[in-house]
């Protein structure tokens, strides 16, 4: 990405807003109701994958009204070329046993699906009561491995997007809306 040295450099990289903060807030209410419906008297654990999903997690957990716990993990995936048999390296793991929880993965975006596919395999191996995926954004046209979220708040075309936790070169996570990145600024 071209270097950011001024406010103008920053602003030029934001091509257009594709999802406003009001639209996000509306859908988050519905996602909160969906998570509420999972509760059957046993613990619900919301797990978000850092860094991208931190803003989404902060908002969605406040739209949930059932008793739930919140946890974070961090992962890096390594792949050879386009092979989908990747290895996910957990750089920060959960520190609790999840076998007595209904787990809900709170993710920012599903692109190829590889990262979340690996995380799903890993967490399923720990025998939670159930496991679901709620993603803010879904780019199904980019999928390499078969992976269907239980709920996607927005389905978007194949554009690189920024804001509301999503970054380009670690910038733009602080934007309160989701915008298309200006590819001319790469
Ligand atoms: P996947 O393994 O290809 O599904 O990649 C998912 C990860 O790639 C996400 O958690 C994001 O961190 C990152 N990513 C994919 N698409 C975008 C995008 O359009 N903007 C910002 N980050 C993205
Ligand atoms: Mg992510």
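^ Assign residues to that structure.
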């Amino acid at each position: 990405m071209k270097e950011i040295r001024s406010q103008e450099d920053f602003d030029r990289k934001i091509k257009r807003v594709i999802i406003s903060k009001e639209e996000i807030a509306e859908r988050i209410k519905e996602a909160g109701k969906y998570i509420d419906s999972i509760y059957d008297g046993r613990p619900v654990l919301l797990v978000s994958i850092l860094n991208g999903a931190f803003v989404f997690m902060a908002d969605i957990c406040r739209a949930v009204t059932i008793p739930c716990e919140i946890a974070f993990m961090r992962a890096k995936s390594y792949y050879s070329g386009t092979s989908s048999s990747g290895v996910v390296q957990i750089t920060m793991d959960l520190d609790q046993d999840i076998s007595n929880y209904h787990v809900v993965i709170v993710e920012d975006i599903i692109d190829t699906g590889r990262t979340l596919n690996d995380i799903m395999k890993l967490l399923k191996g720990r025998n939670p009561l159930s496991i679901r995926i709620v993603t803010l954004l879904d780019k199904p046209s980019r999928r390499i491995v078969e992976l269907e979220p239980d709920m996607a708040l927005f389905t978007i075309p194949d554009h690189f997007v920024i804001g509301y936790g999503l970054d380009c070169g670690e910038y733009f996570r602080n934007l309160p809306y989701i915008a298309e990145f200006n590819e001319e600024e790469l």
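The CA atoms of residues 88 and 121 lie 10 Å apart.
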